[in-house]
Each structure stands twice: as structure tokens, then as C-alpha cells.
Design a protein that fits this description.
The structure holds 2 protein chains of 2 kinds. Chain A is an alpha+beta fold. Chain A contains 10 helices and 19 strands. Classes of the chains: A alpha+beta, B alpha+beta. Chains A and B meet through strand 1, strand 2, strand 3, helix 2 and helix 4 of A and strand 1, strand 2, strand 3, helix 2 and helix 3 of B.
């Protein structure tokens, strides 16, 4: 088998995935399985990690899993293995059947979907796949040299990889997808001060590690001599990464199953003016800045869904089961079955505005510029109050200018209230944080953001 | 498996590695959940593969593969060496490891009932019965139950001659009731939130939980919370239940003592630590009644941080972290032990799976029991709030400032629990908080809690950690901040 070249390991050709899928479906025919579904997922990833201005960890992985769901007598269950010989695949089918037999019949279980048509998306970039450990090391060396020259200390990652999935079932459905991904993230410390920059893309040429390093070095220098301000309500300018990590906690609430379970903040709030009129949000896997497969965990094509239109939550996303229960059409957002969570939108795209961080700063008499947020957790699930900390660069804005650094705050802020208080929006960009999956979001200027306590740095 | 290990180490040596260690791991997992009386997740998985870590040109490289053939393993080892040589292009200094002996051993965690041998029908029947008990309570709008079982075999070999096989059996189980009324969602979980209790035990863990007795109790509390009073905002006396205190230990002691954080190696993601090297043996971390250890030995209990050897081939140890309130020790590995001048690693290198690099992890970081009877502690509290079962947790990236909220609180007046409080929360600065501890309950209230979901590292790894704790009291704590709106 052709694997483990100089760059990240190569993926199997699609015909090999088909061969695995066909083997599973053939083996399942000689069992009591009435229906069979098979997912094959393969990854080949590499990640170079640096700290204290040098590489300290450097890893690569290659793995392939085969996950099999069978249906028998109105029952279903899943078994997963990473062994692809026939005996192992047969054993996984038997395990799946044995699990399925152990439970009561599920009257809500739907027949598997048949053949589907998918829009084409192309997110496999050969230059990303070809990036080698040496290429990453040289880029890291240049980034660290920049920090060393300024008497600063850099830490971060530079990663690349490729992945592919195939999904098929015994009713003739077959879907396949492959993509590449790359990411550079850097934290630069200057004494007790720190700042950060990060980007990721299917195309490694879409960002420049040197530029990100330069930005983090510059902001880290601005972050020295942070002074302590009193907690309270402030106007904040949230950079896209800060917006992403906060609003990322909102979107599981747009699952129809979450609403049916009454664990969503949208219970009794659909169709009402919940957010400001300048807030519109779409789930759109086909957006040029998005990543991910054009099909869901059951193989249905993902639909573009308008979730929020000018501040009003208009639509939820539906798996097949949730759609049947609600009398709606499925939207292609279901998780692989069986599961208890149903579905979720995973490709969020915010409507944007014509402002910019510079314009937001210039228009602010007194406020705070927030680089990123950290350790965000839900305090109140219905009012969607989130807590967390600012991190790696919090700056005071006075009379239209950034005037200095500020010690980090803890916030306790309702997302619903926050999205009612957005005064300005920047262009929507692909943002990368640490708390939420990547989205296309703008920078935001928000009034009355609630900081409750201050920390020691 | 040993042949694969030898093949990998030999290839690495021939390619120029000066040190190597290799792990073949076979992981098996079963997940069962129910929701509102229906089976939710029902799945089983297995994964087997090999990961090799090497030093070459004074720098690290790691590669992993699931192709367990001679050719696949040799290619993986060669890739690890190639990556190490690339690392050397941007190394800061030569990696040097603290000395360690070679061990040849085999160890299995003790269990009475293999959870994979218990019929699935039995496991599901218990979960569905507990689910039904909760749904019987008026006002409950969502019921959830779960069980999770893991069996992990690992074969570790290193170029210094170690050959260690370990088998661990891990079980987890929990139930939860949620109530949505008006504009409020309230939830109660048993025996802990976010999946219940997890331990290095067999199915006997599930047997010990008595789900059927506790299901209606938490369901009634979830519904009753809607009419409870809001937890006040004030500075006052706080008593933490043992599971919440376990998470408090995890966040405000366990993470800051990780030496990789202290040395800046996690600065980009998990963060750093306020426990700089000059604080060792100097900092008064806590009040004099507080004693904390990091103990991976079986003697400490069957926690998620219990093992015989870490994933770097270092035997399990007990390290004093806080002794009579003084800060006494870090969690280290062979590399960081050398960097700070320790004689030996404290044995805390752990990996999630064969495809992840071992990194410094908590083992069982536990608060040792105190001298108070629980009833006496309540009776001795004139005015305070008891908080139980975590609902949210957050702490800054240097581990100073934290905020926790819990599912339920109880007002204590004149030495008695007088009323239920909803939406309890508290916050503080780590060392100020631990220095305010004035009472810790005895061993009869001490539980070794399992935290199954600790995330760290890039790429992210999830690890289980153990935290022994009994209820304890803290003075002058800021209470109610999460729901303040000033």
C-alpha cells in the first residue's frame, strides 16, 4: 500500500474506498441485516508545534476507520473498527447486529435513504497536501526568528493534512468527499504580555505564517504594561475570532431535536425579533470560505438554510427523523445514526457590514478591543448567558484610538442580548478560534458588554 | 505485538534515532445512552495502531500508523526519524531526558465484573428503568442516561530496554433530568454532571450507584428548582460538595502544576501557569489543613489517573503537591524533569491513543481527607451556601481567576440546611480561595471522582483524570457573580 511519503501520508484512491464499502455491503448480505450503512473515513495529518522559539513537538498520523450500521427487525446499532481485512469487517457487522438485537424495537426508525445527488465542491489543494515537515520547520524557524529579534517568545503550531470519507448504504446511496486543511497559530509573549494570531484554510497559500507572526509580535508589544480597569459594562470591539468563539455556542440550539427536547434557547422564540435587525445567519456548506462534506451523517445532501433573517430566527435544521416528527423536510444536517442529538448546523455564515476594526476604533469614545476569548462555558442555557475570559491582547480605546493594554476580564454575557446590541459589523471572514468550529463571521462593535471580574494579568 | 515494537525501534535506530519509545494500543469502547425512554446511542468501536516517538539530532519526532505490517511499521518509524530531523532545523536546545531504569512487566487493573461480558440487554434495561423513574416526575421535560465502557491494552517498548504491557478497564455511568418551565431550564444529574461517575473499575461501578433510588430524587429536584429562590450575590461562606470540589482541584491545582505549562510549552493553546519555578517550596498555596497529592498508584484508589507505568515507561508515583498549605511539587516528564533539575520524572506522561504523542497529564490529583464529620460541618456553619454538582466551569489561561456554577445550592442558616437555591455560582482567585479553606470532611465522605473529558495538547487529546475530595468549607468567597448584571 502506498503510504507515508515525505509530506503527509497519501490517501487511498477513491476506488479503494469503494472496494471497502462493497466488501462490507457484500458481507452483510449473508447476515440477518435488512439494511446496512457503511462510513469509511481516512485521515493523514501532520502538525509541528513550537514553544520558547523552537520546535518541541512534531507529529504525523495516518488512520482509516470503517463504521457499520445495520438494521434488523426495527432496530439499529453501530460498530466501528480500523481493521479492514474481511474477518474484521465481518466481525464488525456481527457486533452491530448483536448490539441492535439487544434493544427494544424503535417505531420511529426510518428506512435508509436511497441514491442522492450532490453539488460538487472542490476543497482538495495539492499544495496543502504536499507541505512537508521540512517546509513547516523552515516557516516556524522564520516566525521564531522574528520573535527572537524583538526579544519576544513565540509558541504555536503549523499543521497540514488531508482527509476523505465515503458513505454508502444497501439502498444504493454512495457519497464521497475529500479535502485538505492547513493551519498556522502563534502566541507571542513579551514579558507578562501576550498576543495571538491564527488562520486556517483548505489552501495553505491562503495565509502567510510570517504575516501572522508579525501581527502577533506587534500586538504583543502593544499589550505590555496592562493596567487594571474596574469591571462593568463596556462597549467592545470583538475581532472575528472572539465573535466566532462566543456565537459558536448558539448553534446547537438551531437543531430541531434540541427544540423538541426543550433544551434550546429558541423554545417559544421562533419567528420573534430575538436579535438586532442587522443580524442574519445562514448555514451554507457551499460558501467559498467554508469546509466540509456536502452530505450529512445519513448521506442526505446538505441544504443552504437561512437560520436568522434580520434578527428573527426563521428556520431550524432537521435530520430525517426530526423532520418526520415535525412534518418538515430534512435539511441534510443529521448526525450519523444512532444518536440522541439529531442534527446541527455546522457551516455558519454571518451577514456582514461595511465597517472595519479600524473604523470601529475610530468611532469609539471609550471601549475595549478584544483579540480573543478563552474557556467559554454556558451559565444559563435559556438566556444563553456565557462566561469566559479575554486573552492575548485586551486594549483600551479612547477617543477613537487604541491607548494601551488592559488586564484581562471575566465576562458573563447573554448571547441573545449581545446580538441585540451590535452597532457595527465588518466584512465576514473565515475565522479560527479555539472554542468553536470555524465559521464565516465579521468583527462586531457591541455596546453594554458585561465584564464581571478582573484577573491578575 | 512485541515484534512490531522491536521492528519499529530497530528501524528508528538504523535511521539515526538516539532514543525511541513505541506504543501499540488496542482500544475497545461501548457507548449506550437513552433519552426520554428511547435508546439513543448504541455503538461499539475498536481501534488498534502504533505510535513511535524518537530523538534524532537532539529533537523529537512522532509518527503513527494503523498499518500493522512489518512494512507499515518500518515506514512509520522512518517517518518519525525524518520528522525529528526536520524538528532539528528549528530546535532551541538539545533534548535531554532525566534518567530512568528499564522495566519488563505486565499489569492489569483490577475489576470484578467485565462490563463487556455483561449482557447489553441488562445494561439497557437498567438505563431504561432509571429513565422511566425520572419521567414519572411531573415537570421533567427531558431525561437522559448513559453508560460507557473501555478496555485498553497497551504494549510499551523503549530503546533503553523496557517492555511493559498494561490492560485497563474503565467504566462510566450517569443519569440526568431536565425541566423547562416559563423562561428557565433547570437540570439535575447523578452521581455527577457531564456523564456521571467514571473510574478504573468494571461493571461493579454501575452496581454501586443505585440509579433506581436516585433517579426520582434528582427528577424532583430539577422540577423544584424553578420555584427555589435565586442564589444571592454576596461575599460569604461556601461549602462545596465533593464532586464540585473535585473539579475545583482539577482546574485550580491540577492544571497549574503541569510543568509543560509552567515552562511555556502549552502557551499557544492550554496556556501557561502562575506557578513559576520560583514558587516551589515558597508559595503558601492554601491554608495549613490542605494537603494535595498527585498519586497514580493503585493504593490511592481506582481512579482515571491510576496505572502501573506512564506512557514514557516511568512507574506510577505519589508526589506531594501541597503539604500543610505549602506548594511542594509539579507534574513532570523525563524531559521537563531534566530541564528543572529534578532527579527523576514524576511519571505523568499519558496518551489518549496510539496516534497521539504522550504529554504531561494529571494522574489522580486529590485533596486528602480532613478531620470533620459532615454533619458537624453543617452544624458549625452559621450562615453559608452549600453548592453541589457542576453546571459550568471556567478559569483564565494562567489559572488565577475562576468561576464555577453548580446545578443546585442549599442555604445554611444556624447550622441547618434551610432552603433550596437555584443558579448558584462562585468565583475567586486560586490562592486566595484555597487559603480560605477552614474545614475538610473525613474519609467517609471522600470519593475519587473521575473527570473523563480533560482536553489538552495540539492536536487535542482527551484524557481521564482522577480527583479525590470530600466536602470542604471556604470563607469570604464571592458568591452569585455569574448571574449578577451590574
Amino acid at each position: 500500500m502506498k503510504l507515508l511519503g515525505k509530506a503527509a501520508a497519501e490517501l487511498l484512491p477513491e476506488r479503494d474506498l469503494r472496494r471497502i464499502v462493497d466488501t462490507v455491503l457484500r458481507l452483510a448480505k449473508s447476515t440477518v441485516a435488512e439494511e446496512t450503512e457503511v462510513h469509511v473515513d481516512e485521515v493523514a495529518n501532520a502538525l509541528t508545534r513550537f514553544a520558547n522559539n523552537g520546535i518541541h513537538q512534531n507529529v504525523a498520523e495516518h488512520g482509516l476507520t470503517v463504521s457499520i450500521r445495520t438494521v434488523t427487525d426495527g432496530r439499529t446499532a453501530r460498530a466501528t473498527t480500523n481493521r479492514i481485512d474481511e474477518d474484521s469487517l465481518r466481525a464488525a457487522i456481527e457486533t452491530s447486529l448483536s448490539l441492535a438485537h439487544s434493544q427494544p424495537k424503535d417505531p420511529r426508525l426510518l428506512p435508509m435513504p436511497g441514491k442522492q445527488r450532490y453539488p460538487r465542491v472542490n476543497r482538495f489543494v495539492k499544495q496543502t497536501a504536499a507541505l512537508s515537515a521540512k517546509d513547516r520547520a523552515r516557516a516556524v524557524r522564520r516566525a521564531c526568528d522574528l520573535a527572537v529579534k524583538k526579544g519576544q517568545v513565540a509558541a504555536g503550531i503549523y499543521s497540514n493534512g488531508q482527509s476523505q470519507s465515503a458513505l454508502a448504504n444497501s439502498r444504493g446511496l454512495f457519497a464521497a468527499y475529500r479535502e485538505t486543511h492547513s493551519e498556522f497559530s502563534i502566541t507571542v509573549q513579551e514579558g507578562p504580555a501576550a498576543s495571538w494570531a491564527k488562520a486556517n484554510s483548505a489552501d495553505v497559500r491562503a495565509f502567510d505564517p510570517q504575516k501572522l507572526a508579525a501581527r502577533a509580535c506587534e500586538k504583543s508589544h502593544l499589550a505590555v504594561n496592562a493596567r487594571e480597569l474596574a469591571p462593568g459594562r463596556y462597549t467592545v470591539i470583538l475581532e472575528p475570532a472572539a465573535v466566532l468563539d462566543l456565537v459558536g455556542f448558539l448553534f446547537y440550539d438551531f437543531a430541531a431535536t434540541a427544540v423538541a427536547d426543550k433544551r434550546s434557547c429558541l423554545n417559544d422564540r421562533m419567528g420573534k425579533q430575538l436579535f438586532g435587525q442587522n443580524i442574519s445567519i445562514t448555514d451554507d456548506v457551499y460558501h467559498a470560505l467554508q469546509q466540509g462534506a456536502p452530505f450529512d451523517g445519513e448521506g442526505l445532501p446538505r441544504q443552504r438554510v437561512v437560520l436568522v433573517d434580520r434578527g428573527i430566527p426563521r428556520n431550524l435544521v432537521y435530520s430525517r427523523a426530526a423532520a418526520k416528527a415535525a412534518g418538515k423536510k430534512p435539511t441534510g444536517h443529521g448526525f450519523a445514526l444512532p444518536n440522541e442529538y439529531g442534527e446541527a448546523p455546522m457551516n455558519l455564515v454571518f451577514g456582514d457590514g461595511d465597517s472595519s476594526i479600524e473604523k470601529m476604533v475610530a468611532s469609539t469614545d471609550r471601549g475595549l478591543l478584544v483579540t480573543r476569548l478563552w474557556y467559554i462555558r454556558e451559565v444559563d442555557p435559556y438566556e444563553k448567558v456565557m462566561t469566559g475570559m479575554t486573552r492575548d491582547g485586551l486594549f483600551l480605546v479612547e477617543n477613537g484610538n487604541v491607548t494601551g493594554a488592559v488586564r484581562n476580564f471575566r465576562f458573563n454575557q447573554s448571547l441573545i442580548e449581545m446580538l441585540q446590541n451590535v452597532d457595527l459589523l465588518g466584512p465576514a471572514v473565515r475565522a479560527a478560534g479555539e472554542e468553536a468550529f470555524e465559521m464565516v463571521v465579521p468583527a462586531m462593535k457591541v455596546r453594554n458588554f458585561h465584564f464581571s471580574e478582573v484577573t491578575k494579568f | 505485538m512485541w515484534d512490531l515494537c522491536t521492528n519499529a525501534l530497530d528501524t528508528a535506530r538504523l535511521r539515526g534515532a538516539t532514543y525511541g519509545d513505541v506504543r501499540v494500543m488496542h482500544l475497545r469502547q461501548r457507548d449506550l445512552t437513552t433519552k426520554n425512554g428511547q435508546v439513543g446511542t448504541l455503538s461499539q468501536s475498536e481501534s488498534i495502531g502504533l505510535g513511535i516517538r524518537v530523538l534524532s539530532n537532539g529533537a523529537w519526532g512522532f509518527a503513527s500508523t494503523d498499518r500493522l505490517t512489518r512494512q507499515g511499521v518500518a515506514a512509520c518509524a522512518a517517518q518519525a526519524v525524518s520528522i525529528a530531523k526536520a524538528s532539528a532545523l528549528a530546535k532551541r536546545s538539545e533534548v535531554v531526558l532525566a534518567p530512568e531504569k528499564a522495566y519488563v512487566d505486565s499489569w492489569q487493573s483490577p475489576f470484578r465484573k467485565d462490563p463487556f461480558e455483561i449482557p447489553l440487554e441488562t445494561q439497557l434495561a437498567l438505563l431504561l428503568a432509571a429513565d422511566a423513574e425520572m419521567r414519572r416526575v411531573k415537570g421533567v421535560t427531558l431525561t437522559e442516561t448513559d453508560m460507557q465502557f473501555r478496555k485498553i491494552d497497551s504494549w510499551f517498548a523503549s530503546s533503553i530496554g523496557s517492555r511493559i504491557h498494561q490492560r485497563k478497564v474503565i467504566s462510566g455511568c450517569g443519569i440526568a433530568a431536565t425541566s423547562f418551565q416559563g423562561e428557565e431550564i433547570q437540570k439535575r444529574s447523578y452521581p455527577n454532571s457531564f456523564g456521571g461517575q467514571h473510574a478504573l473499575q468494571g461493571y461493579e461501578l454501575v452496581d454501586s450507584l443505585d440509579l433506581m433510588r436516585n433517579a426520582p430524587i434528582i427528577a424532583e429536584e430539577a422540577a423544584a428548582l424553578h420555584s427555589a429562590s435565586q442564589c444571592p450575590e454576596k461575599v460569604g461562606t461556601l461549602i462545596l460538595g465533593a464532586s464540585q470540589l473535585g473539579l475545583q482541584i482539577h482546574e485550580s491545582i491540577g492544571h497549574p502544576i503541569e510543568l509543560d505549562r509552567v515552562l511555556g510549552q502549552e502557551a499557544n493553546f492550554a496556556g501557561t501557569s502562575f506557578l513559576t519555578l520560583d514558587q516551589l517550596n515558597q508559595l503558601k498555596y492554601a491554608s495549613s489543613i490542605v494537603n494535595v497529592v498527585a498519586d497514580a498508584r493503585l493504593d490511592h484508589g481506582q481512579g482515571l489517573g491510576t496505572f502501573a507505568y506512564d506512557d514514557e515507561g516511568v512507574p506510577a508515583q505519589c508526589t506531594d503537591i501541597i503539604k500543610a498549605g505549602k506548594f511542594r511539587g509539579y507534574l513532570s516528564n523525563r524531559e521537563t524533569a531534566h530541564l528543572v533539575g529534578l532527579d527523576r520524572s514524576s511519571g505523568t506522561m499519558r496518551t489518549e491513543s496510539w496516534n497521539r504523542l504522550p504529554i504531561i497529564r494529571m494522574t489522580n490529583v486529590s485533596l486528602l481527607p480532613g478531620t470533620w464529620d459532615y454533619d458537624d460541618l453543617i452544624a458549625d456553619t452559621h450562615d453559608g451556601i452549600l453548592m453541589e454538582t457542576n453546571r459550568s466551569w471556567s478559569i483564565d489561561d494562567r489559572r488565577y481567576q475562576f468561576q464555577f456554577s453548580t446545578e443546585i445550592g442549599w442555604e445554611i442558616k444556624g447550622g441547618k440546611k434551610v432552603r433550596m437555591l437555584k443558579n448558584p455560582s462562585y468565583s475567586g482567585i486560586t490562592t486566595e480561595f484555597w487559603n480560605s479553606c477552614d474545614a475538610i470532611c473525613k474519609f467517609d465522605r471522600w470519593t475519587l471522582w473521575g473527570t473523563p473529558n480533560c482536553g489538552k495538547g495540539q492536536p487535542m487529546q482527551t484524557m481521564g483524570t482522577g480527583h479525590g475530595a470530600s466536602p470542604a468549607r471556604f470563607r469570604n468567597v464571592r458568591i452569585g457573580t455569574a448571574f449578577s448584571n451590574q
